Task: inverse folding
């Protein structure tokens, strides 16, 4: 809402409060003033001039040589390029020495050899936005009414010595979509009175009922419809002050009748519509829902197809307006209009919102209906419009109002106790302070023993309950006066849940291990949604995605991590190690919330470690990724329950991928990307993993229990076993451990050899075995006995022989 | 003879002093203290002395011997030390060469901010409540006093999946869910961090996915002044002592009264700068007293219970704290961005 400071001053005395100060006060009290704009924009020296002569420029086709009376001294010659300049016009002249917006200084000049002593200005040159300049002056200079006084300050006549406050209104304050609403607000803030406009309608002898009747067939949508007839109007420009106010408010002036409806819309917040009575084509107005497929051409010359969701004003046969949104072209007020039917109605919000949505058509009128108007002021606005049409369009107001009225004003009465106000706010206000605020709001109320009974005026439809009153009191009391306290309650310590605490430990672990935390988008494309996923369902799809790229919810974190790796690589960051903990979304059927499962995933590519001048360089490989995960399982106390099994998974290297198994159940995978996928993402050798993180964290791991530090020496024996190439080290190790139980405490693989010194198809795996008994020192014989058992077992199970 | 012994001592000490290495020193030892050395020789000639002189000369000879011995040992130690130093000097390395890097990752800046805020509120007795990102229309809107058709609820702003299911547009649904779990009994004291989604085109200041942290306190006798005190405490811990906050009236459907909360600018101390756009204040929160409809819908008696709620955007806080200029950085995972958040 754009509010002219000077216009506002007609309703509330603003003496002693500048526009800037007012803006600050309004903002502090609850309505944000986004900016205050001085319409002068630094202009000075612009006067109304009278074009005495206007002839073609001798040396330029598009220029005119004008002789202009500026009301002082001799008339001056001014060269003007505007196509519409003509002899006899009253125009805005920036004199020599004047300043225009942008600190543009007017100097005496010669244009194609002819002297020019000033500039005849268009409204745009005076800082007015093109979209609000009256159409006939949009391409040229502005022409004043013929009675404008020569030599007078043109800016004053154009209402440009003014400031405009731009209010950012929250949806609850639709009452401030009108000058009067703003006036009440400002009056409450300043503690001053509101001066309402005075309206006196002079009616003629005729009766409106002889002209028109009104029937509303959809009272739900239209509880109140009122109208008046004004005849013998003379269509022409509205008074300049009115045009100036409309322009300041961001509305383009058209003609006196239309301008008056817009003026009332701004003043009362009540949208009006003026029909050309003679073009209505009947003597009745019927308000009803449109029929499916019914058509209307609106004022913007667009033909629109209607449905039963839309409300229309009809002449009994066909629509003449899309109710509350835009009039029809068939009944538009035109230059030859003689008789006007003014509509003042209350349309309810839902039906208007639907029309706005369906037709993508938002107007000053529809905005107000959508947010809710005050029906108690509807007829008053109608009266004022009729009076102004009589005054400024030479009209004759036909006696009486036609109306269809099913609206019942339901008085809103709210009671609130002083104790409650102070209790909710934490203040110590007195009865008198609260009463003062309510009075300033012009709410009528009674007070009994600290309890206020308040009759809320209909303009404040946002106030219906106790808390609404508390808020009014609070904001006008001023939040700066609110004390700062802390809740008085039993001191109960806050804490993270065990899950949350563990998750933080895991984050720190991954970061300490050298991975950076990534956060990627949950929305993805259908082809990425299920890729790499541990579990898949039909992807959960948005009803109305903004793009296909972000149309479904992910089921794996890996694809976006790969994108991140790729993004980095494209920017010369070749070594990438990222992890992410985030949800995936698995459908549980239509119209139910999907299962959200937290996953942990990572991507590692490039060098894992480099200390080049000492010759150390380690590229990421499978075992780097696996090692990071091993550390995680150790952290969670799950190491002994985890195993890795070779696995074939889509998009992964078939020989370098493992599924990770916890207690016999698959909980994730780790592996190298398939070369084709590496190529697709423009990546080099890349390793990824993803774990069912929530399951993992919810598995109770081994807790810490102190074991006594060895008191007796242990015996270490190293063995190198030659086995077939396809024997898994893990299986061999497990067999050793089982065979050596319980004296064999540790089995550690320390060498893997394949090559010339072994037969083809064989490899050697070297293990270090540590034997220990917590009760005593083992003898060589005891160790040898167990060791022999181990060797026998691996020979039997794997054909393993000691490497000679 | 006395003179001869003193002379020998002087001579020997001088030679010890001059000895440049262990071999030279050993030569001195052999030359003066050996069996054929001059001191032994002197002692041999003692027979010529009167008997009362002999013990004196004997004692003197021993003193000289000991002095030489001591000097030899001292010199030996010194030479040995010098030898070690020489050896170590030969082993010198360039200490300015780079050390072997320790691989370190770090949390995402949003996690940093979120965890810091979580900890601040945990310290004030809050617990952390998390919930689904795909929500029902009921919890996302209706339970928060945004019935269907409410003007503040624009279908165009939300990612709907079906008419009743959508990606949550704020973390407020957790407030309703948590209150319901309490079955009308206070106190409730939670903060809810998490991802939220809006139908925005991604640009420098908008992201279709972002994070939010909301807080909720419901109990008997919770006052708006408690909200002010709590948020002032929070602002001081997050942005530094001496910060002040101010409330500006605002409107949210789920709170009443509703306020926007500004923190005095931490960059310019309120004098006005580019961070605060010259106002001295930075808007960081929306807050208010929980609307009675919200309390009632979640099963609390709004006559006995009151509450406050607040919400903030970790992206905005991170951008302010670290001077980040583009919200898209948070989701691109550019390592050149991420690795800037290592320091404690
Ligand atoms: Zn600042």
Result:
């Amino acid at each position: 809402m754009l509010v002219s400071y000077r216009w506002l001053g007609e309703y509330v005395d603003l003496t002693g409060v500048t526009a800037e100060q007012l803006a600050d006060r309004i903002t502090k009290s609850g309505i944000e003033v986004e900016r205050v704009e001085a319409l002068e924009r630094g202009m000075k020296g612009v006067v109304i001039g009278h074009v005495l002569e206007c002839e073609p420029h001798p040396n330029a086709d598009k220029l005119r040589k004008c002789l202009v009376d500026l009301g002082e001294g001799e008339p001056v010659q001014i060269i003007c390029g505007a196509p519409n300049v003509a002899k006899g016009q009253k125009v805005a002249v920036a004199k020599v020495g004047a300043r225009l917006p942008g600190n543009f200084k007017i100097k005496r000049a010669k244009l194609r050899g002819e002297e020019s002593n000033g500039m005849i200005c268009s409204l745009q040159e005076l800082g007015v936005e093109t979209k609000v300049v009256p159409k006939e002056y949009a391409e040229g200079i502005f022409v004043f009414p013929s009675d404008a006084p020569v030599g007078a300050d043109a800016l004053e006549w154009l209402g440009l010595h003014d400031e405009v406050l731009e209010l950012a209104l929250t949806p609850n304050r639709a009452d401030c979509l009108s000058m009067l609403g703003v006036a009440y607000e400002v009056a409450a803030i300043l503690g001053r009175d509101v001066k309402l406009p005075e309206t006196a309608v002079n009616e003629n002898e005729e009766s409106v009922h002889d002209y028109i009747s009104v029937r509303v067939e959809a009272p739900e949508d239209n509880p109140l419809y009122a109208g008046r007839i004004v005849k013998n109007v003379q269509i022409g420009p509205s008074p300049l002050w009115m045009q100036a106010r409309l322009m300041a408010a961001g509305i383009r002036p058209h003609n006196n009748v239309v301008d008056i409806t817009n003026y009332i819309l701004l003043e009362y917040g009540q949208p009006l519509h003026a029909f050309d009575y003679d073009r209505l084509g009947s003597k009745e107005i019927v308000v009803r829902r449109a029929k499916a497929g019914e058509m209307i051409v609106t004022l913007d010359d667009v033909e629109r197809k209607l449905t039963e969701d839309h409300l229309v004003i009809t002449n009994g046969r066909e629509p003449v307006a899309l109710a509350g949104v835009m009039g029809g072209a068939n009944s538009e007020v035109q230059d030859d209009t003689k008789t006007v039917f003014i509509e003042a109605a209350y349309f309810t919000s839902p039906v208007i919102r639907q029309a706005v949505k369906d037709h993508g058509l938002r107007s000053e009128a529809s905005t107000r209906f959508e947010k809710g108007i005050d029906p108690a002021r509807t007829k008053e606005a109608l009266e004022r419009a009729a009076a102004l049409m009589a005054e400024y369009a030479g009209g004759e107001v036909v006696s009486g109002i036609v109306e269809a009225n099913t609206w019942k004003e339901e008085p809103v009465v709210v009671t609130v106790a002083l104790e409650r106000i102070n209790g909710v706010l934490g203040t110590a206000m007195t009865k008198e302070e609260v009463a003062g605020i309510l009075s300033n709001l012009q709410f009528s109320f009674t007070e009994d023993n600290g309890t206020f009974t308040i009759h809320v005026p209909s303009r404040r439809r946002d106030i219906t309950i106790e808390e609404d009153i508390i808020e009014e009191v609070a904001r006008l009391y001023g939040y700066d006066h609110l004390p700062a306290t802390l809740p008085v309650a039993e001191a109960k310590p806050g804490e993270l849940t065990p899950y949350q605490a563990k998750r933080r430990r895991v984050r720190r672990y991954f970061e300490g291990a050298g991975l950076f935390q990534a956060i990627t988008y949950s929305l993805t494309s259908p082809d990425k949604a299920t890729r790499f996923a541990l579990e898949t369902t039909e992807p959960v799809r948005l009803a109305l995605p903004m793009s296909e790229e972000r149309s479904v919810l992910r089921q794996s974190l890996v694809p976006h991590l790969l994108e991140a790796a790729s993004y980095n690589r494209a920017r010369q960051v070749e070594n990438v190690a990222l992890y992410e903990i985030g949800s995936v979304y698995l459908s549980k059927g239509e119209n139910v919330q999907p299962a959200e499962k937290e996953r942990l995933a990572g991507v590692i590519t490039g060098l894992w470690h480099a200390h080049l001048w000492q010759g150390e360089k380690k590229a990421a490989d499978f075992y780097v990724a696996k090692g990071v995960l091993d550390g995680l399982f150790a952290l969670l106390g799950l190491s002994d329950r985890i195993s890795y099994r070779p696995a074939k998974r889509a998009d992964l290297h078939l020989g370098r991928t493992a599924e990770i198994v916890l207690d016999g159940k698959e909980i994730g995978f780790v592996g190298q990307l398939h070369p084709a996928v590496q190529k697709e993402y423009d990546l080099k050798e890349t390793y990824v993993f993803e774990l069912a993180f929530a399951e993992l964290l919810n598995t109770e791991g081994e807790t810490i229990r102190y074991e006594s530090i060895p008191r007796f020496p242990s015996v270490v024996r190293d063995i190198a076993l030659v086995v077939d190439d396809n024997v898994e080290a893990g299986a061999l190790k497990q067999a050793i451990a089982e065979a050596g139980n319980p004296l064999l405490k540790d089995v550690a693989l320390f060498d893997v050899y394949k090559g010339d010194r072994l037969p083809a198809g064989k490899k050697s795996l070297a293990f270090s075995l540590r034997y220990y008994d917590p009760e005593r020192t083992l003898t060589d014989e005891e160790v040898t006995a167990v060791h022999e058992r181990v060797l026998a077992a691996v020979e039997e199970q794997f054909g393993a022989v000691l490497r000679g | 003879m006395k003179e001869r012994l003193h002379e020998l001592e002087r001579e020997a000490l001088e030679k010890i002093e001059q000895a440049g290495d262990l071999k030279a020193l050993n030569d001195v030892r052999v030359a003066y203290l050996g069996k054929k050395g001059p001191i032994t020789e002197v002692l041999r000639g003692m027979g010529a002395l009167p008997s009362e002189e002999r013990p004196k000369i004997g004692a003197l000879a021993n003193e000289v011997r000991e002095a030489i011995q001591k000097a030899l040992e001292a010199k030996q130690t010194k030479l040995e030390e010098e030898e070690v130093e020489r050896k170590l000097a030969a082993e010198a390395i360039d200490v300015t060469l780079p050390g072997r890097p320790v691989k370190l990752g770090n949390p995402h800046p949003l996690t940093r901010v979120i965890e810091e805020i979580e900890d601040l509120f945990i310290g004030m007795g809050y617990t952390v409540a998390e919930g689904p990102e795909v929500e029902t229309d009921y919890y996302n809107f209706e339970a928060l006093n945004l019935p269907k058709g409410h003007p503040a609820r624009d279908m165009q702003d939300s990612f709907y999946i079906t008419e009743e299911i959508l990606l949550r547009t704020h973390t407020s649904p957790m407030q309703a869910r948590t209150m319901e779990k309490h079955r009308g009994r206070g106190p409730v004291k939670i903060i809810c961090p998490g991802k939220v989604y809006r139908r925005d085109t991604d640009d420098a200041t908008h992201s279709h996915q972002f994070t939010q942290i909301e807080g909720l306190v419901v109990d008997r006798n919770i006052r708006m002044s408690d909200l002010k005190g709590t948020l002032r405490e929070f602002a001081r811990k997050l942005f530094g002592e001496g910060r002040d906050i101010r409330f500006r009236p605002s409107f949210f459907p789920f709170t009443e009264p509703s306020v926007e909360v500004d923190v005095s600018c931490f960059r310019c101390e309120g004098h006005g700068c580019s961070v605060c756009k010259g106002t001295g204040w930075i808007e960081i929160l929306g807050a208010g007293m929980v609307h009675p409809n919200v309390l009632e819908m979640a099963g609390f008696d709004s006559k006995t219970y009151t509450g406050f709620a607040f919400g903030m955007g970790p992206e905005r806080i991170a951008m302010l704290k670290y001077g980040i200029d583009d919200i898209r950085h948070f989701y691109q995972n550019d390592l050149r961005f991420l690795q800037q958040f290592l320091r404690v």
Residues 255 and 291 of chain B are 4 Å apart (CA to CA). Chain B has a mean pLDDT of 91. The two ends of chain B are 80 Å apart (CA to CA).
